[in-house]
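Troubleshooting log. The previous structure file for this entry was overwritten by mistake, so regenerating from the original sequence record. Sequence copied from the archived sheet and checked twice against the printout by T.R.
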Amino acid sequence: MVTNVDDSPTARWVWYSLLIFGLLTFAVGVFFIADPDETLKVFTVIFGIFLLVDGVLAMLGAVFGRSDARGVLAVVGVLSVLAGLVLIEKPFAALHIFVIILGIWFVVGAVARFVYAFTLPGARGGQILLAVLDAAAGIVILAWPNIGLSTLGVIIGIVLVLRGLLLTFAGWAALRLERSAGGPGAPLPA
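Regenerated output below.
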């Protein structure tokens, strides 16, 4: 049986989702860096939504993935969903809680990504890079108890810009992989 790449919505969905999510993450990061004071309050809700989406995607990865670290991915997913819901429900009253949640989320996510990276058979460099980036941001945020809103906003912005660049690169890499596997319309063995 022969399958066309055009007929594979999963392959197209993967690179397209990575690319769009990467570009959106990059844009949000730039916005944080450009005006950190005011946008931090507004983006508390948006970051809650981001955590919610990230948590749902992590839980889906745990359910449908083939990795040995699916349990860790599920725990990170549940924590992300819970943190996201708290930030969405009480965005302005939760700003101090937001800082703690954000720092913990970065550290826990870093550990999970680091463990997950070593379960991958190949390209684990991106996951390790994300883990190091998240760990550094989480440690800085948690170690600095009286962090200013501007500084916190810039740290978040830098992390989001770098994460957005990595996700965008992953999306382009997935697109190149799809095209090198036969390109649109080229037959692939089933």
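The first helix runs from residue 9 to 34. Archived copy saved in two places this time.
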